Amino acid sequence: xxxxxxxxxxxxxxxxxxxxxxxxxxxxxxxxxxxxxxxxxxxxxxxxxxxxxxxxxxxxxxxxxxxxxxxxxxxxxxxxxxxxxxxxxxxxxxxxxxxxxxxxxxxxxxxxxxxxxxxxxxxxxxxxxxxxxxxxxxxxxxxxxxxxxxxxxxxxxx
Length: 158
What we know:
This protein is mostly helical. The protein contains four helices and no strands. 4% of the residues are buried.
């Protein structure tokens, strides 16, 4: 059971953005995609619409550090209790992993079961892998903006 660490440094990251990045990296790590797919996906001239793929699970993702001005923060007891609840859930997950290791010790020598990474990608899993650039794509940002302007949910300012 290896643990890998990815450090993302930037001015801002969105929760789903990090999960999307990790989803693609899992596909590369499972050798379903070539490492070059990351650079190709960033070329919006060549690929203005992203292919549909599943996000990575939020469970193993940890926000480790942020730089903020903490001088005026007020932390309520309710928030501390919520943090404790989350950490208790994480402790439960870690305990299950320990039980799993104990069970695996009962397997014949040399026998391995390596399916833990399949739970790190959310959504449906197909039996036959379909490469990213052969999948349906999501609407481009421009098309989504036009859609909301047409529905009068968004006002276009020039």
